[in-house]
Amino acid sequence: MQENIGDLQASIDKLEKSVSFLGEQVRRQNSYRRNASLSLVRGFSTAVGATVIFGVILASLLQIVRSIDYVPIVNNLMSSEAIESIINKFTQP
User: How far is CA 84 from the centre of its chain?
Assistant: First the structure.
């Protein structure tokens, strides 16, 4: 009988430690400072990622436009020299 009470007390002690540990984890996850810093990191990485993706898309479109010599719709609106000058204006550092 005493052994059962001892085992029960040991189980209760383990349970208390587990609940205390989980409470500490929840407190850390709900911390204002932690949430604010994670929000800043997520926002910064989103901005950098969007910039990189936009740059890749823009570079790809530029290569496509440069590789096409004749586009009937665009050539009817503008001369080839005007199109080339616009492209050069945006690609020159």
Answer: 35
Residue-wise pLDDT for 13-47, tens only, equals 899 999 999 999 998 888 888 889 999 999 999 99
**In whole angstroms, what is the distance from residue 23 CA to residue 25 CA?**
5
So what's the pLDDT on residue 29? 86
Residues 66 and 87: beta-carbon distance below 8 Å: yes
Nearest to 72 by CA among 83, 61, 62, 63: 83
The answer to whether the CB of 54 falls within 8 A of the CB of 79 is no
φ, ψ dihedrals at 79, nearest 5°: -80, 160
Residues 6 or more apart whose CB falls under 8 angstroms from that of 31 comprise none
Backbone CA torsion sign across 69, 72, 74, 77: positive
